[in-house]
User: Which sequence fits this backbone?
């Protein structure tokens, strides 16, 4: 299969649907899979009601079939069509955070989205992306789009169309290239199907912001911990991993440098993931700065690209600095720990 690339301007006049978007929308209606930018990462979309189309997502990604997909919508009527009910808490959050990086898990309306999307769960995960091209595509297709991140399963999520093509060229019908994504880590997944809203995956919307809007919010047991039984089915899989083994070092730069020195003495080629503030403090084979600590949003924005850049350097192993687990830092550390397979070296 030859993968079509539609290059479009990121700033869309909402009244004007570009011919490229129309064509991509037609392909989606015909049951093809198309990658598109969102404000978090690139998604790989298919008609959520079409089981064969959804099957192409799992095939292209190599995604385990028990890991359900998020359904992307452009209006609340689409949510009402696929959810059996929208609890008051969910309504409040939709008004406050949509469009935006918040996914809500709601009771599913039977016979709407494909069972492959929801992995036979009684719930469905929905979100409205805050990206003009994503919204234009959903509107032009008239479909709710099931869309996981547009990477091969296990790899870092794509934040550019080039990342999508590196993983999926020849495996998907097309990709809309709308430039780099903004936030850089995926949406927060919040389960609203029970008594107390529960974060299943930390992401672009912080726990603090959610609590401010609706009061009590819990975190799923084992949210960042691979050993505990997962509530979000996706939590149990290895994710975001660069080719070289990655370890997080929780301690001062001197400790990280000591580990680098030991590994290099053992003949290894070593990479360091740090930030602009600290990059001159390390002597290693490859030192990559991922944003600045002063603004953790810049770290989130650059994280997956930085992990992918290590793949091109051929290092044998990577040591990463740790980040404060507050605000967006919770999502950054959640992704880093998964990329590291849980390896955290402490002082
Ligand atoms: P991705 O599509 O790669 O961003 O991952 C989607 C995340 O949402 C995974 O962690 C899924 O397990 C989670 N998810 C999707 N649908 C549901 C659902 N119905 N219930 C709980 N978690 C879900
Ligand atoms: Mg993903």
Assistant:
């Amino acid at each position: 299969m030859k993968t079509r690339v539609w290059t479009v301007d990121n700033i869309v006049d909402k009244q004007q649907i570009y011919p490229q978007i129309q064509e991509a929308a037609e392909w989606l209606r015909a049951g093809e899979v198309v990658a598109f930018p969102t404000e978090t990462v690139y998604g790989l979309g298919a008609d959520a009601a079409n089981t064969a189309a959804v099957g192409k997502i799992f095939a292209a990604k190599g995604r385990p079939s028990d890991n359900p997909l998020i359904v992307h919508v452009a209006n609340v009527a689409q949510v009402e069509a696929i959810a059996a009910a929208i609890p008051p808490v969910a309504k409040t959050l939709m008004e406050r955070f949509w469009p935006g990086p918040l996914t809500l898990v709601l009771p599913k309306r039977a016979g709407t989205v494909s069972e492959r999307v929801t992995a036979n769960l009684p719930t469905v995960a929905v979100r409205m992306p805050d990206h003009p091209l994503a919204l234009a595509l959903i509107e032009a297709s008239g479909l709710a789009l099931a869309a996981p991140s547009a990477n091969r399963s296990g790899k870092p999520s794509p934040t550019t169309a080039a990342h999508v093509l590196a993983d999926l060229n020849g495996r998907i019908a097309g990709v809309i290239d709308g430039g780099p994504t903004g936030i850089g880590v995926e949406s927060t997944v919040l389960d609203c199907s029970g008594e107390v809203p529960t974060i299943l995956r930390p992401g672009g919307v912080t726990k603090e912001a959610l609590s401010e809007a609706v009061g009590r919010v819990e975190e799923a047991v084992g949210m960042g911990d691979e050993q505990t039984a997962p509530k979000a089915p996706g939590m149990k899989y290895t994710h975001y991993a660069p080719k070289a083994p990655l370890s997080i070092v929780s301690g001062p730069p001197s400790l990280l440098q000591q580990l680098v020195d030991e590994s290099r003495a053992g003949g290894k080629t070593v990479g360091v993931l740090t930030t602009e503030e600290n990059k001159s403090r390390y002597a290693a084979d490859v030192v990559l700065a991922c944003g600045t600590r002063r603004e953790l949003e810049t770290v989130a924005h650059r994280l997956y690209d930085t992990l992918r850049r290590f793949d091109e350097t051929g290092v044998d192993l990577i040591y990463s600095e740790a980040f404060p687990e507050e605000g967006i830092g919770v999502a950054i550390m959640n992704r880093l720990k998964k990329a590291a397979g849980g390896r955290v070296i402490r002082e």
In short: The longest strand covers residues 102-107. Residues 246-346 form a domain with the Rossmann fold fold (CATH 3.40.50.11030). Confidence is low (pLDDT under 50) at residues 225-229. The chain is about 30% helix and 20% strand.
